[in-house]
Amino acid sequence: MFQGKKILLGVTGSIAAYKSLLLVRLLIKAGATVRVIQTPAARDFVTPLSLATLSKNPVLSDLFAADTWANHVELGRWADILVIAPLSCNTLAKMAAGLCDNLLMATWLSATCPVVLAPAMDEDMWRHPATRANLQRLESFGNKLIPVEKGELASGLFGDGRMAEPETILEFLRATLAASPITNAQDAQGTHTAPLAGKKALVTAGPTYEAIDPVRFIGNHSSGKMGIAIARELAARGAKVHLVLGPSALTIDFPGITLQRVTSADQMFTACLDHFAQTDIAVLSAAVADYTPAVKAPEKIKKNDDTFLLELTRTKDILRTLGSTKKPGQVLVGFALETSGGREYALGKLQSKSADLIVLNSLRDEGAGFGLDTNKITIFGRNGLEKAYEKKPKQQVAADIVDTIVNSLYA
Ligand code: CTP
Fold it and tell me: Is any ligand 1 atom within 6 A of the Cβ of residue 272?
């Protein structure tokens, strides 16, 4: 994906600048050509020598020095993407005001390529109305923001404001390149760079909540992490993804992904049916309730007797319904989460739900299941495929699943 791609990295004065070294390394390893512009303040955090060595190019910093003038227009036009990581609060404010007091600002003002920003700051700065307004302004210019992460901050406090991890930034850049019309299908050599360019995908993720009354619901422990990782991976390979996400605490803002929030199994069913006909790939990873209260009480139910019976009815099975309307060429992927006897269940689901692939994860496997960052899966295919994978981080598991989807799509 990055082979032959030109990435211009802006590094500003923030503690998170140390992570830009790793980002440069990842980009170079992925085959990109990287040039780095440092703001003067960034030089206090990471040395030009380190950035130059890793990027294999001299680091640019000054707009003009003695008798030379850095051609920011040429730089802005050279790049396929300008990424500013970390983006400090100060540079953000300068950008919002359109100031031009250093090479990075001048290049950003003249850049014709997509611009991706990875902010990094303390939580109180991040939450300040001035920062909110500045970010909104940059988004209104079409600049793309990589969401900050929650975690330990340079101040020692814990909260929102950490710059996204270099691996996440790399994925975001990959998706931005895949979504860009010029680089969409082929690179300069005519090589396919985004195997899912032009494909549409539907992904379900997270739990569903079935209302008992206005206060209570029946839900489950699904976090939505696995489905979100799959949506991200599909988008990074060029697909346009419609993600139907249940009531998860997580969210996602990623190029190529349209997010639709739903609450109940019935809403998820409707959302999927609305989109499936135009979909090439559907991955149903949501933990959908199998039963819902027969009657949803309009008022809060009061306690009366010692026991309370709740009548439940079956929800509509989304996977089975999509399977029954599936057309040739569409790839349908279901999940199976079992506490025992997984293999037979998974094979059974392939048939009963007309799925092309079933991804089995067993709650008995250590490191697999709800809320964890890792998963351990076996993929079963209609074509006899049965492949067990090691325990891996969920983003890598998503890559394995999408590899299998790409193979079955082009088989
Ligand atoms: N699924 C769905 N709609 C439902 C229920 C489940 O689309 N109403 C999907 C899930 O997203 C998942 C797969 O079906 O891809 C899980 O299959 P299911 O038979 O519901 O699994 P279990 O509930 O684990 O199976 P069972 O109750 O048969 O043990």
Answer: no
